[in-house]
Amino acid sequence: MPTATPAPTPKAVIHQRYGAKAVYRVEEVREAVDGGGCPGLALPQQGTRCVYRCELDIAGVLRVATPGNFVRKKDAEQAAAQIALDKLGIQPTANTPATPEEAWEELIGRISYFFADENFPASSHPLVGHLSVSLRRTGDLLGRIPISAIVACDVKVHTLCKIIDPKAEFDPLLVLSMIYNAAKQSPGVSVSDSDFWIQSQRPYSPEAVDLAFQRWSGISDPISVEAVFVPCVMEDEPKTVRLNISQNEHYMGDIASMLSATDSSHVLVSRTVGKTSSEIRFYFPAPNVQLVSDLSNNVASHRGDGNMNRVINKRASYISGQTIYGDAILVNVGYTRRDTELQTERVTLCTYYRILLGKLPDGIYKISKESILVAELPCVYSRTSWKGPSPRDLLCSFCRLQRLSEPHFAANRVRASCNTLGSAVCSEKIGSPKPATGSQYGNDGRIDKENPDVFECDVKIYSKKRELLLEYSTDDDWSKESDAIQNSALKVLVWFNHYFKQLNTLLEKIYLPKSTDGFTIYPNTFSQEFAMCLSVYGKTNGGNSITCSTVGLFPMDPSHQQLENSAFLTDVDGQDSGVFPSHGSLTCIDYIVYLFMKDKRKRYILEVNNEFEFEIGAGAVRNQLESCVTQLSVNQSARFVDELSDRDLFLAAASELSPDLSKISRDSCVLEFSVKVLQVTEPLEDRMEKALFNPPLSKQRVEFAVRHINQLHATTLVDFGCGSGSLLDSLLEHPTTLDKIVGVDISRKGLTRAAKSLHQKLSKKSLMQTAVPTAVLYHGSITDFDSRLYGFDIGTCLEVIEHVEEDQASLFGHVVLSSFCPAVLIVSTPNYEYNPILQRSAMPTKDEEPEENAGPCKFRNHDHKFEWTRSQFQRWATGLAANHNYSVEFSGVGGSGEEPGYASQIAVFRRMARDQVETVPDEDDPPRPYETLWEWPTTSIPSH
Ligand code: SAH
Ligand code: MG
């Protein structure tokens, strides 16, 4: 009998948690019995017997049923309870001993229970599976099982070992030695003196043997399972192997022979890796320890002993988080409580590389989105457009998989600062000045309008031993606590992601980026925890001919991601629908990624996704793909090719359909993408504006400009930051006095779109033989002066300045009024004070905490570098006008203009009468930095 209380039964745990909510329904089933008969069982009827199956219903939680039948009612119930526990992810923790001594006693008792308790073979414990195989044997090995089989299937033993010595968690060899020593003291149990076998001292009764055989059917046919061999030598790549489990043999015996271990007792087992609830584990040869003497002591204390010949398998150790020696085999095989026979599942190279990839911040994200070759970890978070698991969940998974402690989030409620002007603020975060005059954020009065609370969140990352290794602290304020947490979590994820990318290029030593931007690294702890990563990721990428492409793949700042090297599209198909993915819009595509072998001219599908949604401009996909998508419109499809990037990455993506790709060379292959744009949801800003205004705000801005053009009888117009030409385009639809329109923008993509739509309109016009204005599109920055645009009648700059940093906005103001010198300049920009109204109308019911709607709010678009209040804008414009001899008037569109002002605020500058303009462009060498991209009517339309 056990000397200590065994773990609480599954039923007891369920009862503790759910009480009367848990209802067991046991069903009697008649089952045919073949020949022989069972001595210990009363047979109610010749040839049949009564068995049970059980259904467990936990009201409102779940319902499960046993897959097979049980001889005893209570076993059926326990099995059902265990299935429920597994499904719910609950591990029995009750009755856990508090001290190492108590744990030691209990370990002895538990081992005794496994081998000396007559009732044990009747239980559904997976160890009985191992026992039943060994009881089918003859000779020496009858009833003997490897000690590590216990490690593989009893959680409780693990828990106890960890209490005895916390190092046990990371060291299967230490666990082995503990079980060995406990077994020596366990009544009725014997361990061998020269091997790692364990067995009952007395033979089990025939009844017990029979019960074990009934539940655990033997293997009737040999089983062949795919597995992955992970060599200890880093230069050798992991490869696929086949495990052949012979009829009624113990599977660990076959593993032993593959590992060239003496026998299965010399095979050690890691914890499970990869997806939870799988039986994927590393098996590896026990290091050459002096068995009895070493094991009788604490094996771990001998570490470093020179003659012990232990070589650590870095890859396997990194993946499992345990110390693994020598060559290892990653295989999915084992007995579980749920099943009544040996379970196996193939483990392929793809499985292996997915597990490896899944430990990286972007890898977790890619896998969760089922898009390994396309998705990237976005570098901006917004509640409405973030797709997939939240940054916080990702960070928690990352820490769990790296065997760190749970990350610590400290979200603090702070008072919004009351300074009024001048702080540069970034996308969506608050910290922006409060309006100067008593504005009305929301009328419900629940928020302290003068001092609304905001949140900021610091993050701490601890090692398993709870030593601090990274700290992130921030001054960014958010109106919602959850936004503060998610944004900080993302910052940390992006930091780690960067760190791992750099491992590829810095093989020699651990590279720690400078502790800037709120990050503090504790180098000692950090290097300890991540030492293994260096050899694993560094080697697999650097040692092979295929390396990860440059850091450019992972833009830290999406606004600087000017996709200059755009994807070259082929096979563009489908009508231009005019609905195109723009910055900030949510775009849904379908795609196929092929591996194209140039030499063999063969194509293999690597990844398919029929519905993949991402935000443009957030760094959420591979650069080339974003470039491709932004060249298309809804319903169009195209192909492009890209270099074969990181080897680990495409091996992780390579599906069952692909051949063995582990040996292909980078030079002979490319990735080919076939993409179709299915749907585009406009950026939040546009959605908000449309929700509230009719006609839409953008249209109202155009109409505002048209009114001024006609009032002025302007003949020349330049649109600074024309984007995709919405203003220029609409001007062609209104009768105006203009005969020359010019657009300038820094984005070639925007200009290309503008060119397309202007071209369509202008060619129609010329057919109708009405007055056709000249049109030019320039590529360049509006902070540079180009003499060809000097002295125009009117300049417009609509919703542009907030897309550049504040100093650049001021520079533009200076350059335009002092050098370009338009007679009239119209500048529009969002009115920050209007945001609460926009946001309330755009997202009325989505928020969990409705009262927070009235708090300070985020920007309208994450590309905005700032959004100004009326007083900020007026201060900027007034100062500028005064310095350059212009007058300025303020107006706006959207809303009545009453508190809190217009949605879009507008300044109209007018050149004051003067004898001559200040700067006359130099006649000899006038500056012409702009590149003419397109000119009507002289040039032809660009190719795409
Ligand atoms: N005026 C357009 C587009 C507004 S979006 C409209 O109202 O629809 C802002 C535009 O400013 C983008 O097209 C962006 O490419 C452009 N932009 C940002 N910085 C610029 C710079 N320094 N020079 C020229 N254009 C710039
Ligand atoms: Mg804008």
UniProtKB/TrEMBL annotation:
Please tell me whether the keyword Transferase is annotated for this protein. Answer: yes
* Keyword S-adenosyl-L-methionine among record annotations: yes
The residue ranges of the Methyltransferase type domain are 718-814
**What are the entry keywords?**
Magnesium, Metal-binding, Methyltransferase, RNA-binding, RNA-mediated gene silencing, S-adenosyl-L-methionine, Transferase
Membrane spanning stretches: none
The cross-references to Pfam families, in alphabetical order and at most eight, read:
dsRBD2, Hen1_Lam_C, Hen1_LCD, Methyltransf_12
Which chemical reaction does it catalyze?
Answer: small RNA 3'-end nucleotide + S-adenosyl-L-methionine = small RNA 3'-end 2'-O-methylnucleotide + S-adenosyl-L-homocysteine + H(+)
Q: Name one GO molecular function term.
A: RNA binding
The GO cellular component terms are: cytoplasm; nucleus
Q: What is its EC number?
A: 2.1.1.386
Q: Where is this region: Disordered?
A: 917-944
The residues covered by the Small RNA 2'-O-methyltransferase Hen1 La-motif C-terminal domain are 223-359
Cofactor(s), names only, from the UniProt record: Mg(2+)
The HEN1 double-stranded RNA binding domain is annotated at 361-500
What sort of enzyme, by top EC class, is this? Answer: transferase
What protein family is recorded? Belongs to the methyltransferase superfamily. HEN1 family.
Protein name, per record: Small RNA 2'-O-methyltransferase
